[in-house]
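Need TnsA-like heteromeric transposase endonuclease subunit's 3D structure for a figure. Predict it.
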Amino acid sequence: MGEPAEAGSAWEYDESDVQVRFVGVDGTVRLGSLARYWDEPFERADPARKFVAFKGQKNFTGDYWAATSRDLVGYESWVERDAAMALDFDPAVIALASQPFCLAWADGDRGREHTPDYFARLSDGTGVVVDVRPESLVDEQAAEVFAFTARVCAMVGWQFRLVGDLDQPFRANLRWLARYRHPRCHRVSVAELLREVFAEPQLLFAGADRVGDRMAVLPVLYHLLWRHELTADLVSGPLGGATSVSLAARGQS
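Structure prediction for TnsA-like heteromeric transposase endonuclease subunit:
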């Protein structure tokens, strides 16, 4: 998903200088200092602003169903959708939400606002704020806002990540596996056989054929890859029948 952004910024603030506006779990809009509200369950928050869609717009908006949260997560571009997909695929992420809050602060006499793209909650309880912007589109002003956001996040113990386009072929492989992320692709009896077969590394198609009819087995196999119960190299090349697949280390315990 990318490395945490640098936390330095040209502005000097503490947490009490930054306001956060968000929709609470009870549906009411709240506004107050981030120092007060930092421990809200933002991974369950409704978007702080509406997703705009209109005829002729150049970007694509929509909803991505996150298996992690079992809920819809909004996006405003294919790059944002891929970022949400990558968060959903990350085994450390247990929940995520889109545009969970708006940060507001004073820059001299001018008020400034920034709504991050995503908020994720990790299994250890850490919050992760994610902004999505291809590197080529990060101008000086955007870089300042992202650096400031990173510093604010660090002050309240959150991670901050600035991510752009996913690298190929990981992006293509992730998009393929995401088709099988829904629990309906899981069949207990087939999954158990797949774990047995891939306890030793096997080629994807060869291992699937050992379990049964390929067309019936592959959706379960891809689902287990999505869940990290099976593992394969998704970075070096396209996922295919000749890809080596094995039982993940945690699945062998």
